Amino acid sequence: MKEALSIIQKTIDMKIKPGGFHVVMPEVDAAFDKFKEGYSFLAFGVDFIFLGEMCRGKLQELKEQLGKTML
Questions:
Q1: What is the 3-state secondary structure of 16-58?
Q2: pLDDT tens digits for 7-47?
Q3: 13 within domain boundaries
Q4: Residue 39's domain spans which residues?
């Protein structure tokens, strides 16, 4: 696997083919790192991960609001 990734990176570096990478977790720093490595096509995140993060965030907001009213 490492050897295959090395070949892909060399191909990207030589600008023979545009490189693509899927940054599964929506982490901006990870995507930016891949851009700096020369990847020109980036898939960013997955819909169910975005949905899960949004749901967890909204549930946390609700818990905080409920906690304020319970005091």
A1: CCCEEEEECCCCHHHHHHHHHCCEEEEEECCHHHHHHHHHHHH
A2: 888 888 888 778 889 999 999 999 999 999 889 899 999 99
A3: no
A4: 20-70
